[in-house]
Design a protein that fits this description.
Layout: E1 21-26, H1 35-44, E2 48-53, H2 57-60, H3 63-70, H4 81-86, H5 89-95, E3 98-104, H6 106-114, H7 120-127, E4 131-136, H8 140-144, H9 146-157, E5 161-162, E6 166-169, E7 175-179, H10 183-193, E8 203-208, E9 213-216, E10 219-221, H11 228-239, E11 243-248, E12 259-263, H12 267-277, E13 283-286, E14 293-295, E15 314-316, H13 321-326, E16 332-339, H14 343-353, E17 358-363, E18 375-376, E19 379-381, E20 387-389, E21 393-394, H15 395-420
Parallel strand pairs: 1-2, 1-3, 3-4, 4-5, 8-11, 8-13, 11-12, 13-16, 16-17
Antiparallel strand pairs: 6-7, 9-10, 14-15, 17-19, 18-21, 19-20
The structure holds cytidine-5'-triphosphate.
Cytidine-5'-triphosphate binds near residues 292, 336 and 354.
């Protein structure tokens, strides 16, 4: 392909935590044992983990466990001359790119809210200028107590991230909100805290998932899309500072934090809700696998079994993208092309037909690129004919690649607009 430029990108397969120093402050609660899993996940993502513990935390988990997992000495005492010379509370506070307090007990939350610094963990919290997150875990009634909630509100108002506890059976025998957030979600949230805020001021509309076209009240025609790609884009866009609305087809995936979700079922519904929200957005990312055909006359009652079979007449569903593109103004428009053959040729054709700024093409027959999996293999094609092929990446990684392009397309559109004025 003469005008095609093929390049390989590995950077986004690397975690944002790689080579970052995460100081993990462990509080004295039963969930302290989960600090071991958090440490393991952080190390797995390439972070340099420095653990510090309150005296009570050592009653629940030993420094040796966390030292072994973090591959670094564990700091426990502000007044230990040996520790201070090796680690030093000011050095810990300065070295941190991120500080995570997990589990954050009611006591630690209260001390941090009023600025008490009577042990290593609370001293480091006062001395640091790094980003800080608290992952509370405690008894359901303690968590709901107005004092704890008031202290958390104080921490939030200072820009500290709070990873809300989950609900479920608690170690104290109660059931309810108070369980430490899942370690893998905590680590994901930390990754998000390190994202560049380059989408601040953008309003991004994302479509995600499959559509379902009714045959009768109980049957439908659909496709294999899981929605994972669109949800990953919505999640990543929020992390980078955008306001995000997501029009989702039927999907059981959880709504990413701070995303306004509109649930739809049929292509007509999805396209209608997308059109309604289009004037609001500064960029549209059409990641949904929208049906091209629907049954012409869905039955109002359940069709009964018979030996003659069923002839299903299908009618075409009009493509919404060219219509939206016609009234786009300066909006960035990104579409997807899920192909099984002639990937680049088909995708180039769609890019042109649909008036897009970027098309994300993937061959769904390739292993690791199809529907339902957590990875994707994409080629990004722009109207100037440039096609960039990327290796297999996580869908989160692909989401960031797409958003990187969105940022640069948006910037060049606005440069052009300024030049015209
Ligand atoms: N799309 C759309 N409206 C439709 C169908 C698709 O806006 N009625 C969007 C999809 O969300 C996607 C892009 O168009 O971003 C390409 O969808 P795809 O199904 O791959 O392409 P089609 O144009 O439907 O062509 P074909 O099915 O023949 O490959």
């Amino acid at each position: 392909m003469a005008n095609s430029l093929c390049a390989e990108y590995n950077s986004t397969s690397v975690s944002r935590l790689t080579d970052k120093t995460v100081v993990l402050g462990v509080g004295g609660g039963i969930a302290a044992y989960k600090a071991a899993e958090i440490t393991r996940l952080l190390v797995q993502r390439g972070a340099k983990v420095r653990v510090m513990m309150t005296p009570n935390a050592r009653e629940f988990i030993t420094p040796l466990t966390l030292q072994t997992l973090s591959q670094n000495p564990v700091a426990t005492d502000t007044f230990s001359l040996t520790e201070e010379s090796q680690i030093g509370h000011i050095r810990l506070a300065d070295a941190a790119d991120l500080i995570l307090i997990a589990p954050a007990t009611a006591d630690l939350i209260a001390k941090a809210a009023v600025g008490i610094a009577d042990d290593l963990v609370t001293t480091v919290l006062l001395a640091t200028r790094a980003k800080v997150a608290f992952a509370p875990a405690m008894n359901v009634h303690m968590y709901a107590h107005p004092t704890v909630q008031g202290n958390l509100a104080t921490l939030r108002s200072r820009g500290i991230s709070i990873f809300e506890p989950g609900e479920g059976d608690l170690a104290c025998g109660y059931e309810g909100k108070g369980r430490l957030e899942d370690p893998s979600i905590i680590v994901e949230e930390l990754e998000r805290m390190l994202a560049p805020r380059d989408l601040e001021g953008q309003r991004i509309l994302v479509t995600a998932g499959p559509t379902q076209e009714a045959i009768d009240p109980v049957r439908f025609v659909s496709n294999r899309s899981s929605g994972k790609m669109g949800f990953a884009i919505a999640r990543a866009a929020v992390a980078r500072g955008a306001e995000v609305r997501m029009v989702a087809g039927p999907s059981s995936l959880p709504t990413p934090r701070a995303v306004e979700r509109f649930d739809t079922v049929s292509a007509a519904e999805m396209l209608g809700v997308t059109s309604q929200n289009f004037p609001w957005c500064t960029a549209l990312v059409m990641a949904a696998a929208i049906a091209d055909f629907r049954p012409a006359n869905p039955a109002s009652n359940k069709l009964k079994k018979n030996s003659r079979g069923l002839d299903l007449k299908m009618v075409s569903i009009a493509d919404e993208l060219p219509r939206l593109a016609a009234k786009r103004g300066s909006r960035v428009m990104i579409g997807f092309a899920a192909e099984t053959n002639d990937l680049e040729a088909n995708a180039r054709d769609k890019l042109k037909r649909k008036g897009l700024d970027l098309i994300v093409a993937n061959d769904v027959t390739q292993e690791g690129a199809g529907f339902g999996v957590d990875t994707n293999i994409v080629t990004l094609i722009t109207p100037d004919g440039v096609a960039l092929s990327h290796p297999k990446l996580s869908k989160d990684g692909v989401a960031d690649l797409i958003l990187d392009r969105l940022v640069s397309i948006h910037a060049s559109k606005h440069r052009r607009l300024r030049a015209v004025r």
